[in-house]
Amino acid sequence: MISFWQAFKNYWRRGVDFRGKSTRAEYWWMVLWAVLFSVILLGGLAISMFLWTSNHGIGQIETLIFKNIIYFLILTIVISVILIIPTTALTVRRLRDTGFKTWLIWVLILLNYVFNRMELQWHNWWQILLSLLSLLISLIMFLGLVMKSDSLRLGRIKAQPEQVKVETLYPIQVKTEELTMDTQDN
């Protein structure tokens, strides 16, 4: 099994590698890295806001919130742009490892991206349908990410090796054939 640190190294080494496969452990270790990084980032935001209020008082809280949120948003955008390609590559490799076809992976990723960026309100039947489709696509991707390696390949027919015809000869048949061969040689 891949280690926590090895998963981090593979994430950056194979950051633009959309071919091949990635194990379940490699994917979920990177999810844990992302969660830890987000907690640290949000913790830093909370600590900076606390330190600002303790030094400048509560009267300037609006300035503090605005200033810190702007810095936080800029930092989040920069980090997201840096991480989008390696994260997409890791997701493609992980879904391929479970048995998804490459074209299906890209369709799911693109539809998931498009549907999750839409701000749908449930006023019309087609908005409800699109919301449910978005949920279904996200569920399919999540199930693909948690499956074991080659889970979807189990039911496929594999090429059969050439069949070898095996005949069982009984001692009486062997003797008969030997006798027949001897009489033909004379």
UniProtKB/TrEMBL annotation:
GO terms for cellular component: plasma membrane. InterPro entries: DUF805 (IPR008523). The keyword Transmembrane applies. Pfam families: DUF805 (PF05656). The keyword Membrane applies. Keywords: Membrane, Transmembrane, Transmembrane helix. The chain crosses the membrane at residues 27-52, 64-86, 98-115, 127-147. This is DUF805 domain-containing protein. The lineage of its organism: Bacteria, Bacillati, Bacillota, Bacilli, Lactobacillales.
